């Protein structure tokens, strides 16, 4: 299946960003794969997109460097032109950082890194790219099930994602009149490199988390990628300002 849609996915060199890129490509969406320095990982993602019959281009994007967003936007515009398009359809704000620890151990640097990536960088990237988003385009922000439930050591990360969800709802109201939808996808624990790969590699933790879901296991990256691609599809064109949790029913 092919469409003429184009998506930018942040943090696409591995993990959920890679899964989202492949799932979008499977549905005929051309993907701009971005990375903050891991060019080899991004090229591997682009190869996997091509392997499913998709089209990919690779660009560098570091969310901590807001001053680079202007040049990123120009490079993106040039890529759209190479593809014969002038507008972007989907922005998936996937890139994110989690730093976990009790209140006393959180440093200013930790706090600034988490907020700077998950909130500040994402907000200003949306600001930069909205002029390129087509009427009918959309922003999908990757949040976390952690905004709904609580765990000790998760305060800063959960607060950053809660801020992202609030951004999503308010920007949905602001951008709706321009035909742009804004939604959040909130994954539960999923087996990636995230949090040192614990949800993939630590059998004890995996079992404990599995026991907290009604479907009885930890999520797989492809399941989050599919949810993001489904959110991007025409079938959900009347959905905006929503948070969809993709957690197998964690901590209900
Ligand atoms: N896995 C889970 O259990 C889970 C659950 C809920 C929500 N999430 C959210 O899902 C998203 C993806 O997580 P993941 O599981 O794929 O984690 P991951 O494997 O740790 O990947 C994180 C991605 O974000 C990128 N990134 C971090 N800081 C960045 C920056 N300043 N600029 C650009 N890219 C940056 C990373 O790039 P580098 O490779 O260069 O570090 C990497 O591509 C995150 O927003 C995370 O909070 C994950």
Automatic annotation (TrEMBL):
Top-rank taxon: Bacteria
PROSITE patterns reported for this sequence: ADH_SHORT
Keywords: Oxidoreductase
GO-annotated molecular function: oxidoreductase activity
Name the UniProt record assigns to this protein: NAD(P)-dependent dehydrogenase (Short-subunit alcohol dehydrogenase family)
Ranges for domain Ketoreductase: 5-188
SMART domains recorded: PKS_KR
Gene3D superfamilies per UniProt: NAD(P)-binding Rossmann-like Domain
InterPro entries: KR_dom (IPR057326), NAD(P)-bd_dom_sf (IPR036291), Sc_DH/Rdtase_CS (IPR020904), SDR_fam (IPR002347)
Family: Belongs to the short-chain dehydrogenases/reductases (SDR) family.
